[in-house]
Each structure stands twice: as C-alpha cells, then as structure tokens.
Amino acid sequence: MWNDETYSPKYNIAPSNCSNLFFHNYNIIAPFKCVEYPNAPITIDTSKSTNFDRFIYDCSVKALPTIDTTASTRLSTSFSYAVSLKTIDKLILKSDGSQTFSSVFQGTTTLENIVIEGTIGQNGFDVSPCIKLTHDSLLSIINALKDYSGTTTAKTVTLGATNLAKLTDAEKATATEKGWTLS
Q: Whose CB has fewer CB within 10 Å in the chain, the N or C terminal residue?
C-alpha cells in the first residue's frame, strides 16, 4: 500500500519561467517538500529560468537550495512576503552585475542566512526587511557588490539600520570603498 513512509517519488523540474512557482502556496515546506508527502522532495533546476517574479511569494517555504538566476535580467518580488523563509543556501546572480532588483525581499522578515554568488551591480537590492540576517550573510552581500571605485557611478544597497548595526566600520568601509552607499 502506498503511503508517505514507503513511497518516495522524486520530482525534478527545470522551468524556463519561475514566475509564481510558489505563489500563495501554504502546503510546501523546505526544501521543496509537500506537507502531504514529506518524503517526496522536488528538485528545481532554475539555471534556464528567465522570469523570477513572485517566485516564492507569500509562501511557507522555509529553506531554499541553490537558486541560479543567471538567465534572468531582473529579480522583481522574487522572495517577497516569503513569511517563513529562513535560508537560501546560495543565490547565484549574473557575474556582470546587470540584473535589476525591485522589492526582492519585501515583507520577508524571517530570512537569516543567504550566500550570494555573482555580482550585485544595480540599485534596488534591499534586505532591510530581513532584520534577522546573520553577520556572515551581510558580509556575503557586501562581498558581492560590484566595484565602482574610481567612477562617478553612485549605487545604493539598502541593509537597514538593524543590519547595519551588525557590521563594523571596517566592514561598512568595504562597501563604500567600492563606491556604494549603505542605507
């Protein structure tokens, strides 16, 4: 007889469009396991996805594996109102910093851990709602900032007062020396 304990199907998907993939889905726990069938993990290859609008929007996902966004030009509301999201193992961005960000983490107050691979090169990267971010997560963000030193290009990354208080002056200087304003 089939039940959760004896049957463990694995679902592998590689969508070209991740928009609304987990939009208002309250039956998912992390990493991508259905509450009804907890032994049935879903693996998602996002490397060819060109749209991440509301990818994990208003959803109970708690942790994400590596999310490769390099095929997308913008990450609008990708993780907005992810009310239970605590961990993103790795968020892979384009290496040239050309992706745009708009309300990526709006309303996501539970995020603690994130590793950024690639480059943040555009204004709009705002993690101020994520007041539980660890020190290492904040350093990962600062280290991913594109170096604009020696140019007149002014860029801002929004960490918020709570997160800024977790950083030393020297760590903040790493960002400002790259030509970024921290707010």
A: N
